[in-house]
Amino acid sequence: MSIKVFCPVCYSEYIEEPLNCEKCAYPFLGNEREKQEFISSYVGLINTVKDANKALLYSRYILFIIGGINILVALRSLILNQDDIIAMPQLFISFMMVILGFVSFKEPFFALLLGFLSLILLYGVVFFIEPLRLLHGIILKILFLSGMIWGLYKVWKVERIKKISEAIQE
Q1: How would you class 66 by CB atoms within 10 Å of its CB: exposed for 0-12, middle for 13-18, buried for 19 or more?
Q2: Domain span at residue 141?
Q3: Does the model's pTM come out above 0.70?
Q4: Are 148 and 119 in contact (CB under 8 A)?
Q5: At 34, which helix (H) or strand (E)?
Q6: Side-chain half-sphere exposure of 87, counting CA atoms within 13 A
Q7: Which of 46, 91, 122, 131: CA 20 to 30 A from 4?
């Protein structure tokens, strides 16, 4: 009669004790130190992935917040000055950023990159049409761009971590 063996990390079931777990690579035949180091690194990787998922959520919020604030600013500009030629492109790009916030559930890096490029395009249009207007709310614009760059970095890092964790689990 054989005794079933379970991996202490991923709980995979085996009829006989293997050298390493086929799912997570836990070293069944390693010494206690090797086993502890493996479990420690595995737990660290899980925590890193959890932190990365939080970063993804914050990056998504960046798209929604920037899009929402720019929608309000564009609507205010249209109400106060109906001849404002910048307000319509700003409104369009702002709605696009909110839509990209929803797209970021499937393709976070693509959504953030497109949002960042759209924001740069909007600021470029503003600069060519009314250069002095670019200075209005410059601190907010710098915060928006910084937030987008931070979000892009975090999403890139998350995708790299997820690839590593998938490789370990295979």
Answers
A1: buried
A2: 52-169
A3: no
A4: yes
A5: helix 32-80
A6: 13
A7: 46
